[in-house]
């Protein structure tokens, strides 16, 4: 799937009254630097009517960075969560 296909889906969804969060909010949100920002973008994606299509396209294109289809991509693969900047913890912490 090409990015232009997502634009077409946006137009179709808009005529039905659905909203696509990445088209309604600031694009920078989907490329957030903080873990909280990434989780907020992922939460917005979960409300999207084209979530599965967006994710499939991002996987096909091996998107290098950002939140696509409710998942965080880094270097072309999905990662569970964004780690904060700085040194990793010496011991695991209960989430």
From TrEMBL:
What GO molecular function terms would the record report? Answer: 4 iron, 4 sulfur cluster binding; dinitrosyl-iron complex binding; DNA binding; metal ion binding; protein-disulfide reductase [NAD(P)H] activity
Keywords annotated in UniProt: 4Fe-4S, Cytoplasm, Disulfide bond, DNA-binding, Iron, Iron-sulfur, Metal-binding, Transcription, Transcription regulation
Post-translational modification, as annotated = The Fe-S cluster can be nitrosylated by nitric oxide (NO).
Q: Does the keyword DNA-binding apply?
A: yes
Q: Name one GO cellular component term.
A: cytoplasm
Question: InterPro entries of this UniProt entry?
Answer: 4FE4S_WBL, AT_hook_DNA-bd_motif, HMGI/Y_DNA-bd_CS, Whib
Cross-referenced PANTHER family: TRANSCRIPTIONAL REGULATOR WHIB7-RELATED (PTHR38839:SF2), TRANSCRIPTIONAL REGULATOR WHID-RELATED (PTHR38839)
User: What does the sequence similarity comment in the record state about its family?
Assistant: Belongs to the WhiB family.
State its role. Answer: Acts as a transcriptional regulator. Probably redox-responsive. The apo- but not holo-form probably binds DNA.
Q: What is this protein called?
A: Transcriptional regulator WhiB
Q: Which organism is it from?
A: Phycicoccus duodecadis
């Amino acid at each position: 799937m090409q990015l232009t296909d997502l634009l077409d889906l946006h137009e179709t969804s808009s005529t039905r009254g659905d909203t696509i969060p990445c088209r309604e909010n600031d694009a920078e949100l989907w490329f957030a630097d903080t873990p909280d920002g990434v989780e907020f973008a992922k939460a917005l994606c979960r409300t999207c009517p084209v979530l599965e299509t967006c994710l499939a396209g991002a996987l096909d294109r091996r998107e290098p960075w950002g939140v696509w289809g409710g998942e965080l991509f880094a270097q072309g693969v999905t990662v569970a969560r964004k780690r904060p900047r700085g040194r990793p913890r010496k011991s695991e912490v209960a989430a």
